Amino acid sequence: QLLEAKASLSLAQAQHALQLQQAKAQINNMVPKQQLEQLQNTLREEQCKTQQLQKSLQLQAEQTCRQLVRTQEEHEQLLQAAVEQAEGLEQSLRNAEAVLAERAAQLRDAQAQLSRNKLLIEELHGENRRFAMALQAAELKQKSMEKKNQLLEEQASALKQLIGKITPASLS
């Protein structure tokens, strides 16, 4: 609109200058008074139109300038909000990275503990197998001892019976 108004103003000024030249040429050529007055009236009208166009152009320029300032302020506010949001997101990212690093360290610790527990379990399984074998050997030894004990008891019983038979005979 501003460019259109400027173009209209330039056109009006050009027309005005042309009409002024024409008027001067006609005056020089002895233009009749009535035609001169008509040209002067037209000139005044054109000058009036030019002034109105200049005022309109000035108003439009001022409005455009105010709107440009408002738009620039809005853009600055939006930019500031975007910067603040980016900073907030950056802080959230740093916090998330810190939490992630802490969890990763915890997982590494847990994995190391799990490895140690696994080795301990394997050692316990080995000891358990040795104890089971020792228990089995002890049970076999106990059974063997029980058998020997039974044999000894049977022998002791047989000896008692024999002594019981021999003792009365030797006393008589």
Count every beta strand, where a strand is a DSSP E run of 2 or more residues. Answer: 0
> How large is the count of helical segments?
2
Q: What is the percent of helical residues?
A: over 70%
Question: How would a crystallographer describe the biggest sheet?
Answer: none
Radius of gyration: 62 Å
General shape: rod-shaped
SSE pattern, N- to C-terminal = HH
Pairing-aware structural class of the strands and helices? mainly alpha
Low-confidence stretches: none
Describe this structure in words.
It is found in: Cytoplasm, Cytoskeleton, Microtubule organizing center, Centrosome. Keywords: Coiled coil, Cytoplasm, Cytoskeleton, Phosphoprotein. The chain is built from 2 helices and no strands. Helix 1 (2-28) packs antiparallel against helix 2. The protein has a domain at 60-134. The chain has 172 residues and is mainly alpha-helical.
Highlighted features:
mainly alpha, 172 residues
Topology:
Elements: H1 2-28, H2 33-171
Helix pairs in contact: 1-2
GO cellular component, one term: centrosome
Main location: cytoplasm
Subcellular location: Cytoplasm, Cytoskeleton, Microtubule organizing center, Centrosome
